[in-house]
Amino acid sequence: MAKITLYEHANYEGMAANLTSECEFIGNYGFNDIVSSIKVESGNWIVFEDANYEGKSYNLAPGDYSQWQAWGGTNDTISSVRPREAIVLYENVNFEGRSVKLNTACEFLGNFGFNDTVSSIKVNSGNWTVFEDANFTGRSSSLKPGSYPNWQAWGGSNDTMSSVRLCPSITLYEDANFQGKRVELDSECNFLGNLGFNDIVSSIVVHSGNWTVFGDANYAGHSCNLKPGNYSTWEAWGGINDTMSSVKPN
Questions:
Q1: Which of 24, 56, 72, 61 is nearest to 39 (CA)?
Q2: What is the rounded CA–CA span in Å between residue 42 and residue 155?
Q3: Which residue has the higher pLDDT, 247 or 182?
Q4: For the structural domain made of 3-84, what CATH number should be given?
Q5: Is the dihedral angle over the CA atoms 22, 28, 30, 32 positive or is it negative?
Q6: Which residues are within 8 A (CB) of 224 and not within 5 positions of it... i.e. 6 or more apart?
Q7: How far apart are the first and last CA of the chain?
Q8: Which of 59, 55, 62 is nearest to 46 (CA)?
Q9: Would you state the pLDDT for residue 1?
Q10: 79/22: higher pLDDT
Q11: Is 191 helix (H, G, I), strand (E, B) or coil?
């Protein structure tokens, strides 16, 4: 389930509103044009400056946004919000028939009446793995953002999908506050020097999955476990500046 918390003041202070579904006018919660910080606990969300999902918009991945600059917006200008359907599953080929929209992992599509009925898929954001059996088991296929009009497009079989989840994803930045050079990873790396990134990481965004970062190569040395979120400085993940040499998803 997608979940977002809006706060009246910076640094998660003041009144708060918890949402798990779209809201075309947050004034209904007494929150119109007063949002100054946000926590996205799950799912990917779009926040809009005007009601009815209009005006300037911002895409927010899971993480903490302690002030409006963190999402690139303007203070006290949010009027509507909605979760972004990261993946849409369709009953029939060519995106026809019933559909289910997901922002987070689903261990059994039968909970949505969709077990073994998927024939086409749209991936709007993130990299996803789809599985033929429940609980993320059985034959799997990895899908990048794009449209898959039939099961041949993702290399699977028709009507044999039972669970789906986001692939792990992390972005490492050279400087604090997500500045400077960056490298994006969706799998383990036993030596960041191979990417020109040894001992220079100062900020991190974990887009999906849980990751462990290590002070030494080959997953050795001081380690820290990171959940999805934004880590603007090394203090945020409890590490030491410029001392990271390997990373891997848990």
A1: 61
A2: 29
A3: 247
A4: 2.60.20.10
A5: positive
A6: 212, 213, 237, 238, 239
A7: 21
A8: 59
A9: 65
A10: 79
A11: coil
* Separation between Cα atoms, residue 216 and residue 103, nearest integer Å: 34
The confidence score (pLDDT) of residue 8 equals: 95
Pairwise CA distance, residues 207 & 222, whole Å: 22
Predicted pLDDT at 167: 84
Contact yes or no for 9/49 (Cβ under 8 A)? no
Q: What share of the chain is helix, strand, coil (3-state, %, to 5)?
A: 15, 50, 35
Q: Say if residues 181 and 188 touch (Cβ distance below 8 Å).
A: no
Q: What is the CATH number of domain 87-166?
A: 2.60.20.10
Residue 108: how many CB atoms within 10 A of its CB? Answer: 14
Strand ordering across the sheet containing 211-216: 220-226, 211-216, 246-249
Q: Where are the domains of the chain?
A: 3-84, 87-166, 169-249
Q: What is the pLDDT of residues 208-244, one digit of tens each?
A: 788 999 999 999 999 999 987 778 889 989 988 889 9
- How would residue 193 be classed by pLDDT, with cut points 50, 70 and 90? very high
Residue 172's closest CA among 238, 230, 218?
230
**169-249: CATH topology:** Gamma-B Crystallin; domain 1 (2.60.20)
DSSP states of 212-237: EEEEETTTEEEEEEE-SEEE-SGGGG
